[in-house]
Amino acid sequence: MSLYSLITPKAFSELLHRNTGKRIVPVDATWYMADKERDLAKKEFMELERIHNAIFFDIDVFMDQKSPYPHMLPSLETFNEEMGKLGIREDDILVVYDRCSNFSASRAAWELTTLGHETVFLLTGLNAYKEEGYPLDITQVDSVTPYEPTSYTSCTSHAKEQVITYEELHHLVETGEIKHYNFFDMRTLPRFLGEAPDPRPGVPSGHVPGAQPMPYAEVLEGGNYSNTVEGIQSRIAASLSEHGTRLDCSKHSIVMCGSGVTACTVKTAFEACGYVPVRLYDGSWSEWGRRAEPRYIAIGRDW
Questions:
Q1: What does the alpha-carbon distance between residue 221 and residue 289 come to, in Å, rounded to a whole number?
Q2: pLDDT band at residue 301, thresholds of 50, 70 and 90?
Q3: 168 neighbors 279 (Cβ within 8 angstroms)
Q4: What global pTM score does this model have?
Q5: Do residue 91 and residue 207 come from a single domain?
Q6: Catalytic one among 100, 155, 257, 273?
Q7: Which of 10, 116, 152, 259 could bridge to 84 as Cys pair (CB 3.0-4.6 Å)?
Q8: Share of the chain above pLDDT 90, in %
Q9: 264 labelled catalytic
Q10: Residue numbers of the domain that contains 173
Q11: From residue 118, how far is each of 107, 146, 252, 302 by CA, in Å?
């Protein structure tokens, strides 16, 4: 079961007008993959548009800065420190979204709950929010948060249940036990097949033996999650049909991508449909491509 829930624009609007006794804090988790665009997400947040009273959650800040691999889950100490800087309280209701068609919002929602924040929702999509006529704040701001700093404290980590490590995955591949899992990779098909170069220097293209492709955008429609479980199931089924891949609902699942970001988009979809449990290979291809022996770098169609 997911640690966070999807919320439609309509339900989010209703939540804002409900007397919950708690702050409802929108969380903009926009992240662009290209290095030259990394600062653009924050610049757009401050200068163009955001949901009123939103904070900006920077994935490149909320990660293990000492790891050689990008976006590895940070320590609770780092998480607490950065949450405090944003002025978040432990009992805040957080509603996560992004401005890039659900490319990175799921990662933020996953990280927030994996590291112990109690109540988190993921907006089904900002595209739908706009299309349905809900308001955006277009005044310029000079900070990534409208709130004063807090002494945020979480003592809970669900990483053990949520994450599969390189060592664990390597063992499954080496022994052939990976066949007992649904194992999906969310990168684009050319990178998965080894037909296009990896964008990270020194990292080969290809995939982990036993993995099947499911490009993350295929579980979305117009950059949004469907408002219904049946709608999400339909998108997953269409992807499976397109690539000739298989999903056995009786098996546990493992998801990965390039650096653990878009894998969370599909992880969210699987969990919304009850295809659980699902663990994230946090190091993803950024780690596997650098660490695995050449015999464990597969190319072409092998499923």
A1: 30
A2: very high
A3: no
A4: 0.97
A5: no
A6: 257
A7: 152
A8: 95
A9: no
A10: 160-296
A11: 16, 21, 25, 41
The encoded tokens of residue 222 equal: 């117009």
Q: Exposure string (b/e) for 255-279, b if CB count within 10 Å is 16 or more?
A: bbbbbbbbbbbbbbbbbbbebeebb
7 exposed, middle or buried (CB, 10 Å; 0-12, 13-18, 19+)? buried
- Residue 13, in any domain of the structure: yes
pLDDT mean over 134-149: 98
Tens-digit pLDDT profile for residues 151-189:
999 999 999 999 999 999 999 999 999 999 999 999 999
In this structure, the answer to whether residues 144 and 177 fall within a common structural domain is no
Statement to judge: residues 36 and 116 lie in one domain: yes
pLDDT above 70 covers a percentage of the chain that reads: 99
Asked if the bond preceding 277 is cis, omega within 30° of 0, the reply is yes
- The pLDDT, as a whole number, for residue 279 is 98
Domain end residue (candidates: 132, 156, 180): 156
Residue 199, in any domain of the structure = yes
Q: Which of 156, 184, 213 is the last residue of a domain?
A: 156
